[in-house]
């Protein structure tokens, strides 16, 4: 058993609740364990309240409990992607804590997953171009042929970024209620 495992078992809990008890004139400290109960509808199947049972959850079985419950979230969000307006249907499924990372969340949303795939392909292309002299020369040749179109592409990208930044600064997009009674 390694040292870290030993420390994990010996380390006291982060929250310790103690109280003083008088027993026969002597004051004795008693410690209470911290127990938290959470009640909620986290799974797709609906179990009647009376039939629900407590589950012991700790750091070792957290992912297994999440996989068993299969919590999910379905909603519509306004698109903030350039060139796309309207709403996007979002259906998120969680089976482990890793599913909450930004990359894994993006993989569950169709337009964002497509952007991640393009990003990955561009990264692969960049890696290959750096290690392959013929490919690097061919890309430089293509860029030289279409150099007159590059400013238009760059300008379009800057316009899209500027429009999205200006839209995000409005109070309704930041969920800041407007105070009409302010004096």
From TrEMBL:
Q: Where is this region: Disordered?
A: 145-183
Q: Which Pfam families match?
A: T6SS_VipA (PF05591)
Q: Where is the composition biased (Polar residues)?
A: 171-183
* Source organism, top-level taxon: Bacteria
PANTHER family according to UniProt: CYTOPLASMIC PROTEIN-RELATED (PTHR35850), TYPE VI SECRETION SYSTEM SHEATH PROTEIN TSSB1 (PTHR35850:SF1)
State the name under which the record lists this protein.
Answer: Type VI secretion protein
Organism name:
Photorhabdus heterorhabditis
Q: What is the lineage of its organism?
A: Bacteria, Pseudomonadati, Pseudomonadota, Gammaproteobacteria, Enterobacterales
The gene coding this protein: tssB
């Amino acid at each position: 058993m390694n040292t870290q495992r030993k420390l994990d078992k010996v380390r006291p809990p982060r929250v310790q609740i103690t109280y003083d008890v008088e027993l026969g004139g002597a004051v004795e400290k008693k410690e209470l364990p911290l127990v938290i109960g959470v009640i909620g509808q986290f799974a797709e199947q609906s179990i009647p309240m009376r039939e629900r049972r407590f589950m012991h959850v700790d750091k070792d079985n957290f992912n297994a409990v999440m996989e068993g419950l299969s919590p999910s979230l379905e909603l519509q969000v306004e698109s903030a992607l350039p060139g796309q307006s309207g709403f996007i249907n979002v259906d998120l499924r969680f089976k482990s804590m890793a599913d909450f990372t930004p990359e894994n969340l993006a993989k569950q949303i169709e337009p964002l997953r497509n952007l991640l795939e393009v990003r990955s392909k561009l990264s692969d292309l960049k890696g290959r171009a750096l290690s392959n002299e013929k490919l690097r020369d061919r890309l430089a040749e293509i860029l030289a042929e279409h150099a007159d179109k590059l400013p238009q592409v760059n300008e379009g990208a800057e316009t899209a970024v500027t429009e999205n930044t200006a839209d995000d600064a409005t109070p309704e997009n930041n969920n800041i209620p407007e105070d009409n009674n302010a004096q």
